[in-house]
Design a protein that fits this description.
Layout (H helix, E strand, L loop, with lengths): L15 E4 L4 E7 L10 H8 L3 E4 L12 H13 L1 H9 L2 E3 L3 H4 L11 H11 L16 E7 L2 E7 L33 H11 L5 E5 L18 H14 L4 E5 L5 E7 L5 E6 L16 E6 L4 E7 L4 E7 L5 E8 L4
Parallel strand pairs: 1-5, 2-3, 3-4, 6-7, 7-8, 8-10
Antiparallel strand pairs: 2-12, 5-6, 9-10, 9-11, 12-13, 13-14
């Protein structure tokens, strides 16, 4: 399907990637990119020259309940963009999906075309025939990056394939927007949870978890881990059990950029840098006690820089011309 050159290789033995001679690791990411609009911020990604870029979902808007060619056509529009071609030729790419490239607004496991959508997704992103995602349900996976003598584990979740229906908002005025918080919705599904437990236990100096929806943000009525408090608690417990090293979330979906911080059972800080969107930016901002700094309402990309010499991580949001929308530096020892 793609009309551009193959993505620079991220593959290696057992999914390992090596960043040679680097005193830092720089990961860029973004979400919410409508194929009918220009995407000039992708040129800024290339200029920034990160070690990798993660597409966090809504990478196209291809909603359809009965015609997969609608989705295929949306990907073809993305592939035809000069700025996307430049990115794909220059920067190694990883990716997951959110609802609009999964196939329907706020959809979960009930979506009727999910297997066809998965095939289109894997083909467009040139996932190899022997990749595990070709043979198991869902599109979750992980990569190991060796940088400056350290290990960064990139964990890319699938928050769509296995997720049950959200609990819809009732008439109670205290609930906002579409959904209210309720326990009992398995966001990742049994097999992905098992995989995540094993994956988090593997050696890494820093774990970065990519989730299409926000993890650390407060409840705001739209899709988020906060809509399923038991699932967010399960994730926090799993992190406590499986690793003592820093865990960072990255997310998209909400059509603005922000940094949030959630405290786990031991009061451990779990930061979540949200970047949204590449060309889709909204106007709604809910109050949030977990927000760190100000939200950013311009097209944006996220950037996480891990400085091994200084033993710190830098959280950034950058605009189309590289302007700063947020900058926060945290010692790795504080995570």
């Amino acid at each position: 399907m793609s009309c551009v050159a193959a993505t620079p290789a991220l593959e290696g033995t057992s999914g390992e990637v090596r960043v040679q001679g680097s005193a830092s690791f720089r990961l860029a990411f973004g979400s919410c990119a409508h194929q009918d609009k220009p995407q000039p911020i992708l040129r800024e990604v290339v200029r920034q020259n990160p070690h990798a870029f993660i597409y966090l979902g809504d990478n196209i808007y291809g909603d359809t309940n009965d015609d997969i060619s609608v989705m295929t056509a949306a990907y073809e529009k993305l592939a035809s963009k000069e700025e996307f071609q430049m990115l794909r030729k220059s920067i190694p790419l990883l990716q997951t999906w959110d609802d609009h490239d999964y196939g329907a607004n706020d959809a979960g496991r009930e979506y009727p075309l999910k297997e066809k959508a998965k095939e289109v997704f894997l083909d467009f992103w040139e996932v190899s025939a022997d990749d595990v995602r070709r043979t198991r349900e869902g599109i979750y996976y992980s990569k190991v990056v060796k940088s400056g003598g350290k290990i960064v584990q990139l964990i890319v979740l699938d928050t769509r394939t296995f997720r049950g229906a959200w609990t819809k908002r009732g008439q109670d005025a205290k609930y906002k927007h579409r959904y209210k918080p309720a326990d009992g919705n398995n966001i990742l599904g049994k097999e992905q949870w098992k995989w995540l437990e094993v994956t988090l236990a593997k050696p890494a100096d820093v774990h970065i978890i990519a989730s299409s929806i926000q993890f650390s943000g407060d409840y705001h009525g739209f899709e988020a881990w906060a809509n399923a408090p038991d699932q967010r608690a399960k994730m926090a417990d799993l992190i406590e059990q499986q690793t003592e090293n820093p865990v960072i979330f990255i997310s998209g979906d909400v059509h603005h950029g922000e940094l949030s911080m959630f405290r786990g059972p031991s009061k451990r800080k779990i930061y979540d840098l949200t970047s949204s969107g590449i060309n889709q930016v909204g106007t709604i901002l809910e109050p949030s006690k977990s927000r760190v700094g100000e939200a950013f309402f311009k097209p944006n990309i996220g950037m996480i820089t891990i400085d091994w010499r200084q033993q710190e991580v830098r959280f950034e949001l950058l605009g189309e011309k590289g302007e700063s929308g947020l900058l926060k530096t945290v010692d790795l020892s504080a995570l």
